[in-house]
Amino acid sequence: MRILLTEDDPQLGRATQIGLEQNGYAVDWVTSAEHARTAARLHDYGCVLLDLGLPDQDGMQVLAGLRDTGYQGAVLVVTARDHIRQRIAGLDAGADDFIIKPFDLDELAARIRSASRRAAGRLREQLVHGNLVLDIADRHVTQAGQTVTLTMKEFLILQMLVEQAGRVLSREQLEKNLYSWGDEVESNAVQVHIHHLRRKLGRELIRTVHAVGYCIDKPAAP
């Protein structure tokens, strides 16, 4: 999943970006409300981590603007403000959750998963597709009860394809959710990951739609 992080503290912003990237997320980090609005307009984010104390505009205004322009992903407010009225106002404006600074990165990652799950309409941290089971929290995959070892990028591609089973996802769509700004991406990176997934899970699982992209078909009705 690709995350937009807004944080004007350089030390905290960089530490948060590195920590989330180590958890497998692609993280674009901005330091102002203006840059946050521009990034949200140009890219499709699964989650926005929003600092309220931005230098050019209060984060609450950014939150309202995101929802007014139709952003449907999760918004997690990350703030040093610990007043109940501000939390209520944030939730009413469209925030999915709050986390108070300083925070633990493992807790932040868990809250991101929870907020993103609710935004996507999932009730559990698990995706099931036929005999394939994906545990989102642990990044663990089983097929017919047997553990399948995947790299982080392989898991994320599989998760995207299973979540949108029946829909064809282009290479560009997959890349945008796998890589942050500035990442060097080989032109055949997604193709290589798909090849490894087919080798581990069976060639029939992921279908190539010529000149369009890749698809996992919906399971057959019982």
UniProtKB/TrEMBL annotation:
Subcellular locations according to the entry:
Cytoplasm
Positions of modified residues (4-aspartylphosphate)? D51
Keyword Cytoplasm listed? The answer is: yes
Residue ranges of the DNA-binding region? 124-218
Superkingdom of the source species = Bacteria
Q: Which Pfam families would you find in this protein's record?
A: Response_reg, Trans_reg_C
The record places domain OmpR/PhoB-type at 124-218
- Alphabetical keyword list: Cytoplasm, DNA-binding, Phosphoprotein, Transcription, Transcription regulation, Two-component regulatory system
Tell me the ranges covered by the Response regulatory domain, including all copies. Answer: 2-116
PANTHER family from the UniProt entry: REGULATOR OF RPOS, TRANSCRIPTIONAL REGULATORY PROTEIN QSEB
Protein name, entry field: Response regulator
State the organism of origin.
Duganella levis
Taxonomic lineage per UniProt? Bacteria, Pseudomonadati, Pseudomonadota, Betaproteobacteria, Burkholderiales
